[in-house]
Amino acid sequence: RNYYGGNWASFSFSGILSWIKENQQKTDISDECEDWRKLILENEEFISLSKKDKTIQHIEDFCFGDQDSTEDVEEAGALAKLPGFGASGAEGAAQESERECSPLESTLMETESQEPEKATGTESTSAMEGNGTEITSENESSCSTTSGESPLELGKTEAAPSENSAQPKKITYSQIVREGRRFNIDLVSKLLYSRGLLVDLLIKSNVSRYAEFKNATRILAFREGKVEQVPCSRADVFNSRQLTMVEKRMLMKFLTFCLEYEQHPEEYQDYEDSTFAQFLTTQKLTPSLQHFILHSIAMVSETDCSTLEGLQATKKFLQCLGRFGNTPFLFPLYGQGEIPQCFCRLSAVFGGVYCLRHSVQCLVVDKESGRCKAIVDHFGQRISANYFIVEDSYLPESICTNVCYRQISRAVLITDQSVLNTNSEQQVSILTVPPVDPGKPAVCVIELCSSTMTCMKDTYLVHLTCPSTKTAREDLEPVVLKLFDLNTQQETENVELEKPRVLWAVYFNMRDSSGVEKNTYDGLPSNVYICSGPDSALGNDCAVKQAETIFQEMFPTEEFCPPPPNPEDIIYDEDEIAPEGSEFSNSPETKPESSTEESSNGDTTAVKKEDNE
């Protein structure tokens, strides 16, 4: 691949168009040269790796906004050829199939084009229009707190009320193309639980210094055809006008029980074999409260989730409240694809090398021991190692004959306004839409505003996700039709817009290999470890657990992702000091000076986006 992160990646608008085109081409890549087979010795055999990524299927993309004339779109492409502009816009707009530009390059160029904006932003928020969050450990004395609970630094700039909220600005397709570098479109849609495994790992390993985060500002519910805000914190509950005083007391009593349910088994043990939805009906809760708890707080299935699983999910939600804001969730600025790049960066600081555009032909296996000895790359170069970690999509069909994969249905929309307009445009919202038909999964909707650095001003980026039952479009389009308007601007020009208008959309199915056990794969050498792609859950716990499990199997006596040493604590040997003027070094003791911007006490470190590349 020519980009970081596999199916965890984020793309600019031209990058996502290139990715769509690449995955719609079904032709397998044949070996140009078979000379690498000569490198296999008599006592060895090889396992050829897949040349085509088959984890993405049923891609369909649509443009619902005004499609300008060809000249306009070409103009947007020509802009990319001017000094200071990247080449990515030309490819996405004019669809120049002969001229290739990698999504990674477009990301780099996007960063460069955003640097002047960052310089003009306020110091506390960098380039953010809303709340920016820097994750730090809870025992750091230097960090400021919000409401006495939040152990981090928040920069607050209240967005001005929208003057034109009822009549959103007209956005055309060519504007989206021209502003394509403003978009960071995630292939996988997730949020970070503020007390989840990933946030703990980011703090422990100090990888959090390479990223910035924004609070999810509100939890929404879809009930009786309307979108409404869910009160989830104590303050929200008592300030809510949606709930009666009796409902407020009911809700607070039940949520208090959920926080300490393990101490009161008599309350739920008769319902352990029931679903969580059935348990809620016994708890003296009104139908609206049951709906809020099931779909917006626990966020679990109405039919498949047991009582204990529902109580655990509710407790996790409540425990994450108040750590970094009024909701349990954080979102990384510039998209979820920043997270793998942050870990890659720490790896690079200590000598790791990440090779883009570097394919691997095969694994070389010793016939006697059955262990993998080496790989052979597309240059015909043989690289030996003791351990090999392979992402599931690289495995050939011969190894995966007994594997049964699940699928995730995904949709990404660019819209012109929020699903629930308020006096602030800069909202990060999460909404769970319950299924219409029994047996169908609920759909998780995450709506991102422009201050998350994932879309251009006056637009929203909306992610829809659910476990697949059919193609992504068949699973998700009914929900899209409930929440959004798919008509063109001309058709709705003289009508008051009640729903946000979709400007562009893509649907696709993504393989979920997270539940596959290693022994399910046929003929896999013992020192080859398989990591899956993204799972369908909202959080990242599955990926963190998987990474730690693989690491501990390889190095049982080592600590997983230990805190890196502070630069001032490193003792240099003369032989390990990189010579002056050298561009980089693999020595773990060297660290690029430009990589961090240290605070005065050395505890909290923030890294500006423009330094990341």
TrEMBL record:
The keyword Secreted does not apply. Residues 83-169, 559-613 are annotated as: Disordered. The keyword Zinc does not apply. It is found in: Cytoplasm, Cytosol. Keywords: Cytoplasm, GTPase activation, Transferase. GO terms for molecular function: GDP-dissociation inhibitor activity; GTPase activator activity; transferase activity. InterPro entries: FAD/NAD-bd_sf, GDP_dissociation_inhibitor, Rab_escort, RAE1_2_domI_C. Residues 84-95, 133-150 have a biased composition (Low complexity). SUPFAM superfamilies: FAD-linked reductases, C-terminal domain, FAD/NAD(P)-binding domain. Its main location: cytoplasm. Pfam families: RAE1_2_domI_C. Residues 408-536 form the RAE1/2 domain. One of its GO terms (biological process) is small GTPase-mediated signal transduction. Belongs to the Rab GDI family. This is RAE1 geranylgeranyltransferase. It comes from Urocolius indicus. The gene is Chm.
